[in-house]
Amino acid sequence: MALTAVDRTLLQRCLHHDTGAWNDFVDRFLGLIYHVIHYTAYLRSTGLTPEEVEDIAQEILLQVVANDYSVLRQFHGKSSLAAYLTVIARRICVHQMVKIDPARKPLPKNLQKTDDADNHQPRLGLDSLEEVQRLLKRLPAKEREVVRLFYLEGRTYEEISSRLNIPVNTIGPVLSRAKKKLRESEENETAPAKKAPAKKAPS
Questions:
Q1: Which residue in 6, 48, 99, 165 is deepest, having the highest Cβ count within 10 Å?
Q2: Integer distance in angstroms from the first to the last C-alpha of the chain?
Q3: Angle CA(7)–CA(152)–CA(31) in degrees, nearest 5?
Q4: Is residue 53 part of a domain?
Q5: Does a structural domain hold residue 16?
Q6: 73 and 102 share a domain?
Q7: What is the extent of the structural domain holding 104?
Q8: Which of 94, 87, 45 is nearest to 64 (CA)?
Q9: More confident residue, 128 or 95
Q10: Rounded Cα distance, 105 and 188, in Å
Q11: Are both 135 and 91 inside the same structural domain?
């Protein structure tokens, strides 16, 4: 996916140090950063405490803003800004995880977990995160919060249940409906537009 006009404007605002630009950047991409951290830890079979997650997220943001937004200045717009930040965030995340505990090493690929390994972990790959964010705008408030906590913050069913005060057994169906809406949305966007039938010439 190419760089969107919204992200291009946000990028330029940050590089020009416009008032409020950095806050807007954080609001837009903090969910992505948390998702990358949880997903990376999951693939490496590594548990992180909430404090460690916060520290890693803070370090990612610090490195983005360091040296007058050096990371953003190196972005050439050949992909979406979210995809570029995903790569940057994942790299910093792995480095920080090793820094926290040097014994943490990547698992062999044949032992790494996949998205659908169990219902307590993110099921959508990182490449689908932009679709998740678009989907959030289309969901009712309660469903939106469940999807946000599960996919963007990597919360377990139990954590979501406790936080939103809803039964654990209702969370799976909510996520299933959301995934169905996402698939239908993607299909509608990629399906070729149907041509209107040609009008018959008057006889």
A1: 48
A2: 49
A3: 40
A4: yes
A5: yes
A6: yes
A7: 5-111
A8: 87
A9: 95
A10: 41
A11: no
DSSP-H helix ranges across the chain: 5-15, 21-43, 50-73, 81-100, 129-136, 141-147, 157-164, 171-190
Q: What is the CATH number of the domain that holds 47?
A: 1.10.1740.10
pLDDT confidence tier of residue 44, bands split at 50, 70 and 90: confident
Residue with the bigger pLDDT between 158 and 154: it is 158
- Rounded to 5°, angle at Cα 163 from 161 and 169: 10
Handedness of CA 101, 70, 86, 175 (dihedral sign): positive
Q: Which residue has the tokens 């548990």?
A: 47
Please compute the mean of the pLDDT values over residues 110-139 and round it to a whole number: 50
Better-predicted residue by pLDDT, 201 or 176: 176
pLDDT at 165 over 60: yes
Q: At a CB cut-off of 8 Å and minimum separation 6, what does 119 contact?
A: 157, 172
Token look-up 């460690």 returns 52
Amino acid at 86: T
pTM, entire model: 0.56
Token pair listed for 182? 């996402």
Q: For residues 80 and 13, give the distance between their C-alpha atoms in angstroms, rounded to a whole number.
A: 17
| CA–CA separation, 142 and 152 (whole Å) | 15
The CA distance from 33 to 56, in Å, is 9
| Domain contains 197 | no
